[in-house]
Amino acid sequence: MSFKTNRRTFLAGTAAAVGTLAMPPILRAETIKLDITHYLPPSHGIEVDMLRPWAEQLREKTDGQVDFEIHNVSSALGRLDRQADQVRAGVTDIGFGLAGIPRGRFPHTSVIELPFVVEEAGAGSRALWELYQTGQLGGEYDGFKVLGLMTHHGALFHTVDRPIKQLSDLKGLRIRSPGPAVNAMLEFEGASAIGMPPSQIYEALQKGAIDGVATTWDLVGAIKLNEVLRYHTDARVYAAAFYVVMNPKSYEALPENARKIIDETTGEGWQSQMGPWWDKWDAAGKKDAVDRGQEIIVIDDATRDQWRQELEPMIDSYLDSLKKEGVENPHELYETTRALVQKYSKS
Fold first, then answer.
1. Domain of 271: which CATH number?
2. Is residue 13 part of a domain?
3. How confident is the model at residue 51 (pLDDT cuts 50, 70, 90)?
4. How confident is the model at residue 1 (pLDDT cuts 50, 70, 90)?
């Protein structure tokens, strides 16, 4: 944790002068800096609307006693596959990451990413948070102070040369995928699922290394993929899950007032903003595609029902595979997850 280095430097200097205990209390006060990391560009809404305003609020409410530094994809700490590991090891204090990468880290969480479970980020995020709070995600977040869990809106297929109007159109394509549940869906339809951090997608599409990407409008806009894409299939098929986790020692080392502020402003405190945030973030990417005159294919509800039936064997097979990853009752968890999403969708 970065404030430890500041504290060691501070103590060494003050001890050499007059001794720490002899100093007036105001001079002994130290600024605690939290290192916050994510794997996206600094212009993404995750930083602009979520992480940075929250950290600024924490700094303001602690009168500057708690400060922060955000490290994004341009930093050595911005690796997509290392966000949770860095926090667990205490290399960083808070990390935002994609639950599906690396594979197998959060198998319980992956159930919410299966086809046709989530359409709206607000409902998906609330369902995932309740699953965590009620202990239904196993112990996969043990060792973390969990600040937030979320999903995005139901996502799309975006392609360069082939429009996706039926699931069978995916056959033979190389599609960047956000995690194992979506991998299983793509492979079931004869596509190749490619794992890849956002920073590499543009070049891979441009060079023809991949044919498309399964993601949301927001990421398409954030990394300017509309410059190389031509077709967008709005099928609302799946929603990826994300986490914001904190190192427990970093949390416990904070003053009581700072811990209280964190508890009050994260977790449930973030939930009401999830839907509006993703509405805003998705709107920019979609508007750019519309302005460019690109083709947007909207899959109607009747076709989506057909797709759901077509993918039932794949869903059953994926759930069965989770038993090997420590999920005791994956089918029961799946039904519970769907019920929670439907409950929050209605509310």
1. 3.40.190.170
2. yes
3. very high
4. low
Q: Whole-model pTM?
A: 0.89
Chain segment 199-247, per-residue pLDDT in tens: 999 999 999 999 999 999 999 999 999 999 999 999 999 999 999 999 9
Task: For residue 22, give the DSSP letter.
Answer: G
Q: Which of 41, 39, 47 is nearest to 277 (CA)?
A: 47
Q: Report residue 347's pLDDT band, with 50, 70 and 90 as the boundaries.
A: confident
**Model pLDDT, residue 5:** 44
Of 134, 153, 71, 131, nearest in space to 335 by CA = 131
Task: Give me 320's structure tokens.
Answer: 């069965």
CB atoms near residue 74 (< 10 Å): 10
In which residue are the tokens 């519970």 written? 336
Q: DSSP assignment of 199-257, as one string?
A: HHHHHHHHHTS-SEEEE-HHHHHHTTGGGT--EEEE------EEEEEE-HHHHHTS-HH
Q: Are residue 74 and residue 202 in the same domain, yes or no? A: no
Range of the domain at 331: 156-239+282-346
116: in domain:
no
- On whether both 87 and 198 belong to a single domain, the answer is no
Which residues, 6 or more positions from 39, have their beta carbon under 8 angstroms from its beta carbon? Answer: 72, 73, 78, 79, 80, 83, 96, 97, 98, 197, 198, 199
Residues 181 and 303 in one domain: yes
Same domain? 161 vs 206: yes
pLDDT, position 10:
36
Beta strand pairing status for 241-246 and 94-98?
Answer: antiparallel
Alpha-carbon distance values, 331 to 90, 315, 317, 328 (Å)? 35, 9, 10, 9
Q: What is the pLDDT of residues 26-45, one digit of tens each?
A: 333 589 999 999 999 999 99
